[in-house]
Amino acid sequence: MTHDQLIERIRDTALLHGDFTLRSGRKSKYYLDKYLFETQPDILAALGEKFAEVIKADDKGIDRLAGPELGGIPLVTAAAMATGLPMVLIRNAKKDYGTAKQFEGKLNEGDRVLITEDIATSGGQSIEAAKLLRDEMKVDVAKIVVVIDRQEGARENIEAEGFAFEALFTKSDLGIDE
Ligand SMILES: O=P(O)(O)OC[C@H]1O[C@H](OP(=O)(O)OP(=O)(O)O)[C@H](O)[C@@H]1O
Ligand SMILES: O=C(O)c1cc(=O)[nH]c(=O)[nH]1
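Above: query sequence and PRP SMILES. Below: predicted holo structure tokens.
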């Protein structure tokens, strides 16, 4: 799938119009329903390849990938399969039984970890995941890579916390002018 075909597939599959409340509490007249594009195997495979390009371009090398619940899970899986890199799955909250962990999979202190995420609005969700990895798991967060940046301040907020940020696509790339 070409870059432009992927943009078109995401837009056609997942762009909704209406009145939406976002995770940040903001209101929006449009919503990109990530589950509508993440549940389409052709789109997911193409996104895995896009993440792989970013991962291969990292000059210091990535040891592991991480995906936050829930939307980041299919993405990190696709990226892991496209690169052969191992991954961890990050929970929104610790389990209070069994292994009682907030992430699943294996992490080594000092690993360079790249986070995959679906949509960035304020960047709040991505920052939470990155802080957990950096401050509690003691890994080196190489970059937060999202599928779509809604261009509402996520980049500025993420970079202000000391993390690198990249978006595969922006709201402008998708031709959204709301
Ligand atoms: O940049 P932010 O302002 O933090 O908002 C964007 C986040 O909000 C959404 O998650 P949602 O709350 O729908 O959670 P889910 O992935 O568990 O469905 C979306 O998946 C992003 O992660
Ligand atoms: O900010 C959000 O919560 C959000 C925006 C959006 O376009 N899509 C989504 O899944 N979440």
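The mean pLDDT is 96.
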